[in-house]
Input
Amino acid sequence: MGFPPKEFLTVSELAARWERAPLQIIDWAMSGKLELMVSLTEAEFQGGEEADYAAVRAGHVRPLFRDAGDAERFVMIRRARPPGSDKPLSIVHPAEGVRVLSTDVLIRTTEIERFEEENSLVRRVVVGPGAPTRHSWERFYVEMCCRIFHDGLPDTQTELVEVMQDWIMDDPNWGEAPDPSTIRKKVKVVWQRLKPD
Output
């Protein structure tokens, strides 16, 4: 028996899944195509209700994802819609609102699946418990993050693509190497977030 599926993805995780810039996901949310949640720490709403997460307007968190190199480190959320409520409520504790980072902005997996269904997005289907997908992109992203952490970000996106191509070629567990354009797409999602200009 395996673990239950994830209930939420961060915007960055979803950006990697869809191979789109995080800001594009926020803009879809602003146009009403996706609902965003934020995780909350010790938040109390008017009326005494408490919640671990709540829905927010995308415009409130968009400054966290600006791609012109001037993204905010955090925003303060003072109103949100907790589960079970049909309208946003004011956060009364903490009085200044809840500090939210980009990693606190979440999308429910049910919301993601609805969006994918409505927009005919192709998803890899896992057949049977534990069946592997063709390539382990999760391992790819972990390796890329480790290399950036230890060696620093290369000067160009092309250099990072080459580093990851070499890693794939040297990894005996990878199997058939994907084509270079696929690797470029995977790297581009991370590159645009780290070096948007």
Confidence is low (pLDDT under 50) at residues 123-133. The chain has two domains: 8-118, 137-194. The helical segments are 11-18, 22-30, 58-61, 109-118, 137-151, 157-170, 180-194.
